[in-house]
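Supplementary Methods S3. Complex input for the FE2/S2 (inorganic) cluster-bound model.
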Amino acid sequence: MPSGLRGRFAKGTALLQAARSLGVDIDSVCGGRGICGRCQVTLSMGEFAKLGLHSRPEHLSALAENELRFDARKGLEDGARLSCSARLTGDVVIDVPARSQIHRQIVRKRTDARMIEVDPVVRPMYVEIAGPDISDPGETLKAALRTQWDIDAMIPDAVLAPWPEGADGVTVALREEKIITALWPGFREHLVGLSVDIGSTTVAAQLSNLGSGEILSEAGMMNPQIRFGEDVMSRISHIMMNPGSGAELTRVIRRAVGDLAAECAAQAGLDRRDIVEVTVVGNPIMHHIFLGLDPVPLGQAPFPLAEDGPLEVAAADLGLDLNPGARVHALPCIAGHVGADTAAVILSEDPQSSDDVVLLVDIGTNAEIVLGNRDRLFACSSPTGPAFEGAQISSGQRAAAGAIERVRIDPSTLAPRFKVIGSDLWSDAPGFSAAVAKIGVTGICGSGIIEALAELFLCGVILPDGLIDPGKAEMSARIQQDGKTHAYVLHAGPPEIRITQLDIRNIQLAKAAAYAGARLLMNEMGIDQVDRIVLTGAFGSYMDPKFAMVLGLIPDCPLADVSAAGNAAGTGARIALLNRNARLEIAQVARGVEKIETALAPDFQAQFVGAMAFPHESHAFPHLAKVVELPKPGGDGPRRTGRRRSR
Ligand code: FES
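Predicted complex, serialized as structure tokens:
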């Protein structure tokens, strides 16, 4: 056994039975009928001196008829045996590969990420039926389930209709060991489920194999509710000003999820009706609108949730045309501003198991922030606004082809070079113009504006208080008078892309909100330093942590301990899809999270004002200072070469 388990069994015992009696959960869909092939194991041959035994092929029964049939039909893996058919005749050492174990684990690419254990709430079972002429399918199926699987399950009439006449066997979907939610004629090896992350801007879905945990397909689209308002608050306003329109917002998002389900299923060569389980996450307003709960109270203090626990409903009741027995599980919301998406981030990043104090930051139009470790968890949401998404920035745009995403500025000449999405070349590299000829240089996205501002700050063009130093105009024609203030021309165009004083102000407001939120939680926890920072969400993944720290968007921390987790909310939704205990775990963890309401916190304003400066008015950034030469507050920075700013 892979875990080094050892046991004594009577000759003739099936390997499957022996393994299970040692606590090794070997998979089976067919109940040992030699049909599914999920129970394959391999024999380790040779002398095992430590164990004092010799493991030989002849210590297992010869290939049984079941195995020969399976091998001819689907092919046994090299040297493998069906553990339901192979029987012991002597001493053997058996290897149970991960793919044959029920609670197999999925290793994630990031080394600091938790493993996902595949143990879904619904699993397939093949049931042989006595004969083609069945007068009472319900009773026949129940009896077969009892005999073959020792299971007494509820079987709703709708699952039995239409009964597949003439089938020798059916595959059923058994949910929570107690109810049959779907039935197909013949043998079906895998069930599939969908995990959905409903963002205010985009909706993303992944279709997963509920047996192996493998992602089969994924699809995404813009949230069609955008036509009712760019952000969640404007959508609430729309609902308030147009009585009855809430149902329309619910209808469009449900239809979008249905379309994504169909697209994912088609990509995987399946039908949307094959989907038997769905998990959903989203911010509180997206969550409420999707589930048909009134989101309007979430628009004003004290932001009460209609429901904060996990919710489970029939997919059909949400108008989703999936398998008729499919269920939808919505993860719990944490607070009026901290939703099921943050619960999913917690599930993915697992701070509740960490000894280190972890700061999780998900930046969108709000920064959802979680801080803590295995002892305590705090969460808040801070209103960053849409500046990081390119809105409120004069040349801002969403992260799409043509957007400037990386910026470097020469401290002695103030000449910039940059990269745009869609090309790997820097703008000063030969061939750049040809490479971007088709896409063009169209604007600057969130990561680009952060790098531009951080570089301008490091060059002394932007002073710690955020003002562009007019004295730098002598150094470079790129610094130009812009009304009563100044601007920095990043790209001559067309279109011209400039960083204006107002752009800087809007980024200051956004980053100060994020930092103040994090600091509020740190004060609640009584700490001045975090051990690790995890940036989540699309923006967090593109943002260079060094530049984010230079601007003071996140607190000081060793840069090596700042990581990007990508779409952690989507991963959390997938974990809840693949592991039933994860649903219980996050429901419990979410209940215990200590919520801080930034709008009502007396200290927030003071934190916010202090955080307006780059990187901060008074907080030190000692770890950052080891890798970056920061301009000294209130004086000329080490990279400054122009004359002092006069005011
Ligand atoms: Fe299905 Fe062995 S359990 S083939």
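The pocket of FE2/S2 (inorganic) cluster is lined by residues 28-30, 32-39, 82, 84 (CB under 6 Å). Residues 352-386+507-625 form a domain with the Nucleotidyltransferase; domain 5 fold (CATH 3.30.420).
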